[in-house]
Write a structure and sequence with these properties.
single chain; alpha/beta; Double Stranded RNA Binding Domain; 5-stranded mixed sheet; 10 helices
Length: about 350
């Protein structure tokens, strides 16, 4: 085929991700013309309700899938963590790009405070990099009856936040990254949690030293960006991964298969298998993080507050076996939680 229409949502982040797919396709098949087509999704149109009330996983994908099936676009670009567990009939994930940073980031206004750790107010181990420099003087000292308000509607982030920090509450927040940062700056929240991969792709907070804010077109210098250690704040399954969906057995699928990153694809498939085995829907707090450490495949997973860590050989069959085992352990009785194998 000589022309590829790349379907995407219209947010700044979605367009950045579509541009990465466009660049990868142009590099692989420079003779193929590419065009970005914006598709407005249900999740973009409805901003006054929590995602849990409008379908959550499918709200950013269903219209893109319909456009694929109707032949209006040739490929659809998704944030992989937003994909529903079951794709529309006749469609498949043809490629995933190299994974971005898996971490979540606690964003606070400059001059703000970090929430105190539930472990006696100490924050060691929660933050990545040099963010421990802020865990001394800049810890939230809540007044009686006052809590640290975190903007996040994610059940996973809510559960982990309430487990890690004392006197916190998570409140619903909607909108794109710029909108959420504006709401934070206006004082609607004491902090918000965002995915670092998205911030990186937008060029927000990338130049920070430790938790220092960065100057950027987004006004990032007004904030402190505090990456959270993924070992304790487990990321959502497939967080940081850009997925490319196509009609199966199409020319677009054949072309897109050439841009997939093998290492990321392995982790994508294993983490999706965890969710499949758990039958985890939007009503559950679930997480899965697969990665290669030296010659071992490591899988950390969480379900309804229970966690498990497993490791095995680096291959897909072994990865899927780990996913099945993880789901079995996570569904076991509470006295079997927090297992390490």
């Amino acid at each position: 085929m000589d022309r590829i229409r790349i379907g995407t949502r219209g947010s700044k982040l979605a367009l950045k991700q579509a541009a990465l797919v466009q660049a990868a396709l142009s590099q692989t098949a420079g003779s193929v013309e590419t065009e970005i087509v914006i598709v407005h999704t249900k999740g973009d149109r409805i901003q006054d309700k929590p995602l849990t009330q409008i379908g959550e996983k499918g709200v950013f994908a269903s219209e893109l899938e319909q456009a694929l099936l109707e032949g209006l676009i040739d490929v659809a670009v998704h944030s992989a963590k937003d994909l529903p567990m079951t794709l529309a009939r006749g469609l498949g994930i043809a490629a995933v790009l190299p994974r971005g940073d898996v971490r979540d980031v606690l964003v606070i206004p400059k001059g703000g405070r970090l929430p105190a750790s539930a472990a006696g107010g100490r924050n060691e181990g929660i933050y990545s990099d040099a963010c421990t420099s802020l865990t001394g003087e800049q810890v939230w000292r809540g007044e009686a009856g006052k809590v640290f308000r975190i903007g996040s509607g994610s059940r996973r982030r809510r559960l982990l936040s309430e487990r890690l920090w004392e006197s916190v509450t998570c409140e619903e927040i909607r909108g794109n990254v710029d909108t959420r940062l504006r709401k934070l700056q206006e004082g609607g929240y004491d902090g918000i949690i965002l995915a670092k991969a998205g911030l990186d792709r937008l060029g927000i907070g990338r130049e920070e030293s430790g938790c220092e804010g960065s100057g950027g077109s987004d006004g990032g210098a007004a904030f402190l960006f505090c990456p959270l250690a993924p070992e304790v704040f487990l990321p959502a399954a497939c967080q940081g991964i850009i997925a490319v969906e196509t009609v199966q057995d199409s020319g677009a699928e054949t072309l897109c298969c050439r841009i997939t990153d093998a290492g990321t694809q392995l982790c994508f498939q294993v983490e999706r298998e965890v969710l499949t085995q758990l039958a985890a829907d939007c009503s559950e707090a679930a997480a899965a993080w697969c990665r290669q450490e030296q010659d071992r495949l490591v899988l950390d997973a969480m379900y309804a507050g229970r966690t498990v860590s497993l490791s095995g050989r680096v291959d897909l069959q072994e990865g899927k076996r780990l996913a099945v085992q993880a789901a079995k352990l996570l569904r076991a009785q509470p006295d079997e939680e927090n297992r390490e194998v």
